[in-house]
Every structure is written in C-alpha cells, then in structure tokens.
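agent: user wants the structure for Glycosyltransferase family 2 protein from Cohnella faecalis. delegating to structure tool.
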Amino acid sequence: MIKISLCMIVKNEEDVLARCLDSVKGIADEIVVVDTGSTDRTKEIAAKFTNKVIDFTWVNNFAAARNFAFSQATKPYLMWLDADDVILEEDRAKLLRLKRTLAPDVDSVVMTYCLQKDSYGNITSSSRRNRLVKKARQFRWIGAVHEYLEVLGNIFHSDIVVTHSSTHHDSDRNLRIYEEMEREEREFTPRDLYYYGNELLDHAQHTRAIEQYKKFLATGQGWIEDNISTCGKLADCYHHLNDQEQALEHALLSFKYDKPRADFCCRIAYYHSSKNEIAKAIFWYELAAGLKWDPSCLGFYNSACWTWLPHLQLCVCYDRLGQYEKANEHNEKALAFRPDDASMLANKKYLEGRLKT
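agent: tool returned. relaying tokens verbatim.
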C-alpha cells in the first residue's frame, strides 16, 4: 500500500478547513498545512489534524507556496487539495482502493474536479487535474496565479472525484496580483495572459479581457484546452458587448484548435435561432446532440451541452416549424436526462395535445 502526504496551502479558511481534513481521515498518512498569513482560527483548526502546520511568508506567488508545501512532505506520494475541497464518501472508498492497488510505475493520478452539480446530483461543470504524484519525480508547480503542476511520465486516469464546495473567496486577490505584475512591467507567460483575461472577465471588464485573450492566442503557445476555452470566453465578452457577429466568429474559431465540441455547436445554434434561422439552428443542435465527450479530456466539461440541452432546443426548433413528432422525440430524449424537469414535463403535456389534434 502506498503512503500519501496531503499538502495544502491555506489562509483564513476557518469555515471550511475542518470539513476538508475530516474527509481525508484514513487516506492521508501525513498532512502538511502551509499557512500564508491567516488571521483567524485556521492554524488552530489545522493543528487538531496534524503537527505539521508551517508558516510561509506570502510573496504573491501560489506556485512558490505549493512547491514549499511539497518540499515539507516525507511520504512517497503527494496529494494536494484546497481548503474548500472535499472527498465524498464514494470517492473516499475509491481512494482507499487506489492506495492498495496503484501500480509502482505510475507517476501521476488524474482525478475529476467537480465544480458544480445540478439538482439531480449530476456533475454539470468539471475539469481533470493531476492530483496525486510520486515525490521522487520532483514535479514542480508553475505560475504565480492559477498555478499548475507540470507532470510527465506514466499518467493514470482515475474515476475519483474531488468536489469543490466553496463558501467564500477573495474575488479581487488574483486580479490585484496581475495588475501589480503589469505595473511592474514583468513578463507575462501565455498562461498568465489567459488567466489575466479570465480575471478581467470575472470582473465584467470585457474590453480589457478581450485584449488579454487576443494577446494570449497571438502567442501561438497556449495549451489546446486554454485556446479552445479562450474562444468561448471571447464569444462571451462580445455577447456582453452586444456584438453578436464577433461572438459567432469566435465560437467558430474554436474549430481551428480541435474538432467541433458540443458547447460551441450550441453557441452557434443559439445565434442562428435568435435570428429565426431555424434550419441552421437545427443543423448545429443536431450536431451537438450526436457528439460524445471524451472522458480523458482535461478541458472543462459543460454537462448540459453534451446531454439534454441540444435535445431541448431541438424540441423548441421543431415546434416552431410545426413538426410536433420530431419536437416530441427530442423532448423525450431530454427527459431521459432530467426526468423531473418542469419545463420538459410541460412540453410533454403540450406536445401530447398537439399530436392528438
């Protein structure tokens, strides 16, 4: 059985830290909590779970803090979590099984990061992260903000889920770091440009976000998933600026980087639907409905676009054309994913009436 050091960096996490650490009892053989300047009870709470609560002077660099946490660990495998993450019971069992069965040649284990669930408990937004790594490989964190773990070698893709359950965060912290970098004229990596754009978008500064996103794509050095994500975020920015033609252009730009994905097909279909170009909308929604998500993809997963949403919109489109059998067919397919959805059940009743007449 492998031994695991859980490595965390924290600051003012008294509301969530105990919940996180409770969820890894029996999984982590060592817990390293690196505190970057808490002024609440965070360190006191951490001390109830581990004797390795270590201060680290904050230098506006998340990678530096995470690398320090890794350096303090002593077990052969390192796992990382944020304070507002939890391991649910089903995934605890999977992690314990992984500890017993992990092949010795595995360098990193990828797990799903659940960002959001619907009312049915289905994951609606997620990504994949290198979550457990072999200490001997000396993998390093990179990036002052939105840091990532640079991993090579034999990667095992697991079905284990880490669930994000945030209660609060400093919404301006990352933006302040990037703006300080800009004032000091420090060099931005392509990844910095991408995440700077994200922070600006989150703060509704759409014109400034567009500038950073275009700089990012112009480098030609971005990770493919960030390139694709940027196309969607540029489309969002132009949508907020009421420039729907540019929104469409940047949705289509995503095809430069990969084959069509369901979320972009839905964007394009919506554009045509809003212009009453129903045949074109049907084409793109049908394409979205026929696509299958690759579970090994490390990009963000929008469940709705890959499951029920294209069928619901096809129901609407076919209804507008008076093709009620086709509309009902797609509403039934949407209901298969969300059997208690009020709007779909209302569609069902409406369409049954239409089909009778």
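agent: one observation worth passing along. The first strand starts at residue 4 and ends at 10.
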